[in-house]
Design goal:
This protein is of the alpha+beta class. The chain is built from seven helices and eleven strands. About 20% of the residues lie in helices and about 15% in strands. Helix 1 runs parallel beside helix 3.
Length: about 325
């Protein structure tokens, strides 16, 4: 996997570069040429993948919270796009206290001997409307990024707001003027830039050309989590709904599961058991969790400082 990684000397993009693409599907490799270089491919592990490792770190100022009225009870998770079909009337939720480590208490999947690896450290669950902003239909990438930023200490300090993310991407030249205050989507590439910009955990990008190839990446993901890695952001083109992976479970033969944290929940969950019962966090078979015809980008987080490493001890 290391042979497929590239450490750019500077994560900033030239101010003269205008980029109108705002969605994960439009950040389509196969080459991930953000720094004007074609990245090397590593065809080991069952599928081609390409990786990017962030470099510099910039301190983060905490974003202010937003307030509003009480949200409705959250619905069960469904496989449909949250932005598809008739939408409910706009509602302004109140700022919520993010729930911590919402996967705890879930039983392992599978029926035979298994190898189980979960993320180390702690995280907060960020989802639609959790800070008082109605971002249904466009905010899943931002919410997943916020979950990544909360790791490994599981605290809100240092987690940027959605407006802060948009301003940062515009200021660093990744997005054109006017991106701030928009409903433009972001994906794993933008998340990796923001992790570096805001001084969060290190984000390493890996590209899988087809969802079916993720079956061949289970050993890599197992090693990531077993080695103290944090949550993994996932997003694609045909499957543009961002989500986070919190662990993997490998059984006999080709049996494999991923622990998925879905940010599309809308409402006010009060306990992790509610999210587990509704399906917003849970184990899914790899073959059913990903669209075989979609490419996927993965952003794998790891610690970058002694302070972050201490949170894992």
């Amino acid at each position: 996997m290391d042979s497929g990684c590239y450490s750019p000397p500077d994560l900033r993009i030239s101010k003269g570069v205008q980029e109108t693409r705002t969605q994960e599907p439009q950040r389509a490799p196969p080459y991930l040429t953000r720094w004007g270089q074609r990245l090397r491919s590593n065809k080991s592990g069952g599928g081609a993948q390409q990786c990017i490792v962030g470099a510099s770190r910039i301190a983060l100022a905490q974003a202010p919270g937003l307030k509003g009225s009480q949200p409705p009870e959250f619905p069960p998770r469904c496989q449909e796009d949250a932005s598809a079909g008739p939408r409910r009337p706009p509602l302004t939720p109140t700022a919520l206290e993010p729930l911590k480590d919402v996967h705890l208490g879930l039983a392992p999947p599978g029926h035979g001997p298994t190898r189980l690896a979960l993320l180390s450290g702690h995280y907060l669950y960020y989802h639609y409307g959790c800070d008082g902003l109605d971002d249904r239909g466009w905010g899943c990438g931002y919410r997943t990024l916020q979950t990544l930023c909360s790791w490994p200490e599981g605290r809100p300090a240092g987690v940027p707001g959605l407006a802060d993310v948009q301003i940062a991407l515009e200021d660093m030249g990744d997005k054109p003027p006017g991106f701030r205050d928009s409903r433009g989507w972001i994906g794993c590439v933008e998340a990796s830039l923001c992790l570096d910009h805001f001084g969060g955990p290190q984000g390493r990008l890996c590209h899988v050309p087809r969802g079916a190839g993720l079956q061949g990446q289970m050993e890599m993901l197992y090693s990531h989590f077993a080695g103290g890695g944090g949550p993994v952001m996932v997003g694609g083109d045909a499957d543009a709904q961002s989500k986070a992976l919190l662990g993997v479970c490998l059984g006999p033969g080709m049996e494999a599961y991923v622990l998925v944290l879905d940010p599309h929940c809308w409402g006010a969950p009060k306990h992790p058991s509610q999210l587990q019962a509704a399906g917003w966090v849970g184990w899914q078979e790899v073959g059913k969790a990903f669209n075989p015809n979609s490419f996927y980008n993965l952003c794998l987080t790891s610690c970058t400082s002694k302070k972050q490493q201490h949170a894992l001890d």
